[in-house]
Backbone:
């Protein structure tokens, strides 16, 4: 803090869930900005969280569903019938029951080796999005950022994927908490081409769900040494345009050249350009 002026809150626990709950429900309010929650203290920590919506995984909609089951507190959730919860709420109910006892089987120490190289971008939206127009703005911004990173790496993608995650307590009619779809395309790193494909996916699968997370990923990367020409499009002009945009942003900063749509309600690119590191979804594209 003496060097940067930035405060850091720390949650410590026997697993990621307890550490997260300690951070959100105690550390932020302690003078030293630290809190430690252990299994042995669940009854005095986790069960004391109030209101119930302060618990990870329980939003207003889920709180309403729990109230209809006669559950109004984390203590009551922990002492409810596991099989009844699972029957009424599915996998989410079973997970909430385990979490109410401080149980989280996530293992962060396991090494992960990616199956193939990819370039992507994801973000948690600052609020719930329910407007397709606003979602389209964000998707186009993210497509532009990812395409910029593809060009910087001198590669093209032949497979793009859009992932949409719903608001924490929202579950659609199929019991899903989000949807994802990937499409094979001719190799490209053109911002507009990638954006059009992703927006097409959004148009096909978005029917009014409450959205809080968006992810864009490009795989099947290849070196940008060959080019598949089109008889119907002026490829040279499109590439020239992208190169000019990249150069202007490199010299003068991202916000000196943005799409007009980023100024509309829902736009995130300008605000994200001021964030630090990973919070901006990869600074290479900003």
Residues:
């Amino acid at each position: 803090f003496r060097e940067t002026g930035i405060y850091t809150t720390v949650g410590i626990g026997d697993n990621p869930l307890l550490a997260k709950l300690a951070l959100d429900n105690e550390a932020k309010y302690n003078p030293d900005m630290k809190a430690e929650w252990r299994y042995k203290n669940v009854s005095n920590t986790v069960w004391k969280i109030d209101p119930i919506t302060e618990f990870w995984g329980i939003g207003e909609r889920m709180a309403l569903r729990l109230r209809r089951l006669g559950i109004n507190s984390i203590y009551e959730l922990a002492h409810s019938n596991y099989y009844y919860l699972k029957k009424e709420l599915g996998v989410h109910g079973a997970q909430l029951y385990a979490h109410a006892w401080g149980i989280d089987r996530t293992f962060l120490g396991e090494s992960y080796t990616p199956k193939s190289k990819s370039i992507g971008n994801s973000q948690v939206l600052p609020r719930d999005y329910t407007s397709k127009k606003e979602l389209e703005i964000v998707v186009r911004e993210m497509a532009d950022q990812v395409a910029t990173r593809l060009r910087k790496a001198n590669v093209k993608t032949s497979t793009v994927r859009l992932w949409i995650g719903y608001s924490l307590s929202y579950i659609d009619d199929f019991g899903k908490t989000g949807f994802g779809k990937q499409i094979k395309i001719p190799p490209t790193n053109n911002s507009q081409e990638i954006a059009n494909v992703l927006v097409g996916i959004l148009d096909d699968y978005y029917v009014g769900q409450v959205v809080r997370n968006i992810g864009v990923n490009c795989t099947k990367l290849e070196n940008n040494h060959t080019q598949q020409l089109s008889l119907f499009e002026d490829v040279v002009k499109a590439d020239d345009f992208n190169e000019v945009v990249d150069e202007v942003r490199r010299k003068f900063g991202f916000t000196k050249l943005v799409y007009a749509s980023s100024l509309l309600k829902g736009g995130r690119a300008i605000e994200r350009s001021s964030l630090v590191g990973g919070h901006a979804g990869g600074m290479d594209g900003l």
Summary: Residues 10-100 form a domain with the DNA polymerase; domain 1 fold (CATH 1.10.150.20). The two ends are 27 Å apart (CA to CA). The beta strands are 10-13, 34-37, 119-129, 155-166, 178-188, 211-223. The longest strand covers residues 211-223.
